[in-house]
Each structure stands twice: as C-alpha cells, then as structure tokens.
Amino acid sequence: MSWSPKPSTDGIYHVKAFSDSNIGYWRHTVNNSVDKWPMIDDYNAVDADDYAWKITMTSTNRCTCTIEPVATSPMALGLSSQTELHNLNGYGIASIRAMNKGTPALEWEVIPGGSGKYSRISLISHPKANEGNVVLEICLDRDSNDERICFSKDEDSKRQRWIFRKLDGRVVRGNQRASPEQNRSQGDKSFENMFFTLTPRIAKNEKYDIIIIGTGIGGGVVAGDLFDSNSRMGEHAKSVLVIERGGLTFHSHCLNASRPAGFGEDRGQQNDTFFAKFKDNYTFPSSGTNSDWKGGPMYNLGGRSAAWGLFAPRIHDETLKNHMQPIRDPLLSKWYREAENLMSLYLPTTNAYQANVMERLNMTSEPKLACQWQWGRIASEFRDDGNFDFARGAYSTIDKLLEIAMSKKQNDSGEYEEHPNWKILLHSEVRSIKWDACSGDGTTALGVRVRDVKGNGDEITIGLKKGGKIVLGAGSVHSPAILMRSDKEQFLKDNGGLHLTDHDIFAKAYTFQYTDEIRRETIGAMKLQTYVNLPSQDVALCNISIDASSFLPREFLPNEFFRNEQFPRLIFAFIKPCRLNPNNTIELDDKKEPVVTIKREIPFKNDNKDVIELRELTKTAKEEIRKALKIEYIKDKGEDSEEFFKPLELGGVAHELGTIPFSQNLTSEDKCLKEDLSLRGHEGLYVCDLSIFPMSPEVNPTLTLAALALRLSREVLLPRKLVRSAGVPEDTVWIMNQTGEKIKVFISNNANVKSTDDDKKATILGPGVDAARMRKRGCTESVAVYRLKYNSDKEFLDNPTFWKAKAGELTIICDK
C-alpha cells in the first residue's frame, strides 16, 4: 500500500515522518513496564504491532479521528499528565493513555499541508488550542537523546509533517466499542459529507483575496459569479473563501423538490410552509416576543433564497430617483437586466381572455393613479398550462454553489480536492472582523474570526492577503452584529445604521367561481402587477393573483367561507414604501448575540388617505375582472368594513432591511456605505445583503440586491475587463480570452500595418490571457476564434466564430 497524506477510512496504519528515508516511524514503547510513549524509530519489523496504529475516523467531513496503539488495549494517544514532561516546549509531550470506562479516546484533526503531500496532526482538545493549532512534532528527549513525539505550535515545520500507510489485511485487535458519535459517522454518505469537507482549521492555513460571509441572495450571487469570473481570468484569478453558518438543508429552491401532500392541488403560497418550518428566530427585548413579527433568518446553504417567494419586480424609477440616487443609473442601464437573466425571469404567453382582463383594468383605472397592468415578474418557470401554479426551475443561489462543490476533481484515492481558487466552509459562523488596530480604531480589514458550529466553539482567525476584501452578507441582523462585535457599534449608530425596518404589506381576498367551469382551465391562472401613484406622492406596488398563488403566506389569507380549496380566489396585495424607522434598533446581549427591536413607525390604518385610494382601486378592479371573466363572487363580505385590508406581520415575507445603509443621494456622506457598498472610512470591507438599503421600497428587494451583487462582483471585486492600468493604446487591438478554456485566435490586418511574425500565425490563449496587435487608430479588425474540439484540450475546431475588435478598445472573447 502506498503512502498518503491522510487516512481516509478506518483501519490499521503505519505513521511516518514525511521524508524520503526509511526512518521516522511511530513506535509504541514501554518504559519500566509503566510509562507508554509513541517514539520515533527506524522501521525494522514489518509485522510488529509496536509500529501499527488503529485509526478510527470520527468525521470524514473534518478529517478527524482517534488514534490507538494496536499493541496495547484499551489505550489511546493523548497528552501526558506528568508535570515535567507536560511542560516540554511549553506544550507537552504525547503519551499513550488508558481510556477510562465510558470515556472515548481523544479526537485528533489531520490537517493537509499546502502541497497536498503530507499533513499535520492536531489535538483538538489541547489546553492551549485557543492559541491556534497545537500539532505533533519530533523532539529530542533531554535525558535519553531518544526522539519522542511532543506538541508544538503549528508552524508547518519539517518536524511536524506526517504521512500514512494503510496495512491491508490487518485485523483490529481487542473488543473495544466505538463511541456513538463514531458509529453515526461510519458509513455516512451525503452530499454534505462528500463535497463540503473543508474546516476552519484547514481553511486558516492560507490567506485569501476575497472572503464572503453568507450565501443568500447577496453573498451567494457574489460567490457564484466570482467562480465564473475566476474561470475566465487565468493567472488573474482571485482566491475566494465562502463562509456559511448553516449546512446543506436544501439542494435547490424548496419548490423544485417534493412538497407536502395536497400542495399540488391548491394554489397557495407553498414556499411559505418551508420558510415557517426551517427559519430561526430573532431575540427580542424583555418578553422575548413580538406579536407583530413573523420573520427570521434561515441558516443553510443559500440562506433565505431557498424559500423566497420568487416575485422579482424592479424598484420604480421615481423611488430610485428620490431615495437611491447612487444606484439608479447603474441599475437601469445594465444591472437589472443582468440580474433578470441570472434569475431566468419568466413572462407567460398571453391568451385572449388574459389580454382582455389587462386591457379592461388599464382602461378603467383612474388616470391619476397611472396604472399600467402587466404580467407579474417571477423568477421561475411554469408549464404553459399551469401559469403561476406549480413552479419549476425556481431560482436560488443553492443550485450554483452546489454545482461548484460537485465539480471538484477527484484524486487517485477517489477523494474530492478543493478548487485551487474557490473554497467554501459550512457550519462556520463568522463572529467578528479582524482589523489592523483594536478598540474601534482599526480601518483596514485583515481577516475574520470564525467559530466552527460543529466543533468545540473556539474562534479561529482566517486571514486576508494584502489588499484583500471581505463581503459581509450575513443578513440585516447578523451583518451589523458582526460589525458590533468588531468594535464598530458606535460607527453604525453615528451613520444611520441599526434601524431595522419592513414596509407595510396589506391585502384583500375574494372567493369566486366561474359561471362556466370549463372556462377556468381555458383562462388559466394570472398574476398581474402595476405601480400606483399615491396621494402622498409615494409609489406603491399592486399585485393581483387570479386563481394563482400569491406571494403572501398561506395562512395569512385562508379561505374565508369554505374549507374546500377547489374554489379559486382573487387576491389583491399592496406594498407601500417607507423610510427607515429611527426607533428600531439592534443591541448585543451579554453573550454578544443580537437583540432586535422592530416595530411600525406608523400603525397601519384603513382610513389612511393612501389606503382609501387603494381600496377604491380594488373595488373597481374587482368589478372589471368579474365582467371580463364571467365569474361570481361568493358572499362578498366586509366590502365597506373599516377593516377592509388586513396588514401582514412584519418580516412575514423576509423583506426587513436597512441596518447598514448607503446614502440616498450622490453628494451625502451621512450613511454607513459608499456607492460601491464599501464601509465608509474603511478599507477591504463591503456589505451585500438587505441591510444596505436606505429605505424600504415598494417591492420585494430581492432582484435589486441580486443586481447590486453582480455589480459588486464584476466591477469592484474582480473586474472582468481586467487590463493593464495604462489602458489600451489607440493604435492597438487588444483581446482577452474569458471563455474559461483555451482558444486559438487570428487577428486580421485590414489596416495593412507592417506585419510581424505574430500576424502570420494563430495564437493560442489560455483562460484570462490577452493578446495585442499593432493596428491603425479607429480601424475595426476581425478576430477568428477557434474553440476546442469535443473532449480535447489540444485540438481545435476547423471552423471559427468571428468577433469585431476595434483599435483602442479591449475586446472580451466569451460565451455569448
């Protein structure tokens, strides 16, 4: 059996120092028939039990194990309790200790080295583990000059490097019983155990260009996009570490998988059931509850993108102009479109009945409201015969992140190796940011402090490379909590932060039936939207669901008159914008955990002038829909009631935001973030989650956040149009390969400049590699691009595709 850098399965092993010579084997020895030690020795007895060690994996995910000598039972490798030896080098010496009844063997973590050829071996429960990894090292005994195995601080020195060789056919002696934890881990096979094996202790052994905290719509979009950018950039690729507090709970958006029985037959908001079951809770002051709150975080890969409602409208132009000036032009000119492409925004084919409904609604709406009814914008796919009914292909960040994890290469042992420039940690909670100075004076981010949720709770520091960047995407409560634990609480308070806010959402529902039931299937489900100008000069969003799922929670609008869910419903739902509530805040308790205060600044009232206007709109639209579809309403009740609209609890559809906002206008510097989402007055820290919004808009903010995440990824963190700082000379055609694979290119010479050897032959470009040719100023050349043949990394197709390349500009060759 060959040597390997770490054990992969339970078994009997030789353990040896990483060396070309046949020395440095672990050997079990006995002094005075009492003391038992692991020593370093030449290997001179092939079958001797003294050189054999039973290794039992306690977690393949973290590569942790117990180590027991085969020669003696029941004993296990541990830390000597003898005072004079314990103080050796200040960290102690390894010994072979008896396992007391009911006490499992100590747990070790095998930490692969950077080269992948060896590992260090760390005692997880070492008394000085809080100083960092404490690993096994070869040391010289002061009395006998024997080489023992002692403990020392992890410095990846030559004396701390070990390799393993499994002994085929060896049988484990004794009748020791594995602990329950070991029994549970043995034989476990799951996507998480197979593809997400990185641990904080291993991740900290290198530094990163970019660290992303959180995998929801903000951090998850950035993480997936950076992986794609890296594949295009070749030697310009950045090393990325993604950190997620939760595990792999969902493999995709919850609506892409199985659903509870009966959900396929109704048209309720099915994702809300998953949100309610899997969300966690925030902590509130004093009583610990908030009767007007129904939200909470989700700790899992993808965050709340695993169960969001898929409704993806844009923020209205007027709201952007009045309250979000710094991002208005970038969103409207490019990034909204990019985000809609990412989410595969769905718009159905319109039949004659549906067109008639929209026309009637538009013609009968009050001109002052400026209604323009159109299809709702949904980030999902539906069958043509089931519009807005049973979602398929619903967007979540999980799909991309799991795809990346599953694309790892396997080594000769069949184990998956981490991507060289993109890694992800699950079950790892970032507690704080490491700055270049303490006590709130630090302004440059140097790394993050991480707690392994599945480990012993110790905090581990993971560092940034010089000039590295951190993207904080832990959500509107936990992102500010991380900054508060990083001595930035006063900064947040001084710059308009911590005011967690959610907008008013309110609705009215009607149950109806078709006069001719056959028409129901012909007409199908409809989900419509329009912006509405309000008397207060604000813009609201109105959504109408006709025989379709609403984005509202299922129990929010139960069938008021019948438990029989076969009756279709008409639901009007409105969202009003609001400013950040200055009375809402976040504090830290004694354990440094966030305590949330969130309330409505103005209580919802049906007699509000804006709400009265929307009630009249509802009544008019309801009547026009009745006539256009030939339906009958069942027991119109409460039409003139003072409680006409019912408000949704805050957080009910996970829109709470605004705790680390950017400024509302281009000239102001009164908020936490700059236009590029960097923390004002600081270097290397960016925020990308719902906390960035300076007000609560009239729409679901998910699409806007995804658009800003793409902009952050491609313009700030890793610009895809990477080129030398001097720019492109006016007389030069410059092309860059961002296809992610090798290409062969030939650049024409229509300008008839003096030819060089490069002009006479095609050039092969790897990912991220560029090429420049002298041409005439302002002249446009053609670029013949040859792609690789199928299943080949050397041979190219005979027929090229052609690209235009203008002198003085950078031309990106990529997959269109």
In short:
The chain is α+β, with helices and mostly antiparallel strands and 816 residues long. It is built from 15 helices and 37 strands.
Q: How would you characterize the overall build of this protein?
A:
The structure is a single chain. With 816 residues, the protein is an alpha+beta fold. It has four domains: 11-188, Trefoil (Acidic Fibroblast Growth Factor, subunit A); 199-257 and 269-280 and 296-344 and 393-492 and 654-720, FAD/NAD(P)-binding domain (3-Layer(bba) Sandwich); 346-378 and 504-576 and 607-644; 732-813, Immunoglobulin-like (Sandwich), CATH 2.60.40. 18% of the residues lie in helices and 26% in strands. The chain has 15 helices and 37 strands. Strands 13, 14, 16, 17, 18, 19 and 29 form a seven-stranded mixed sheet that branches. The model is unreliable at 171-187, 262-268 and 558-564 (pLDDT under 50).
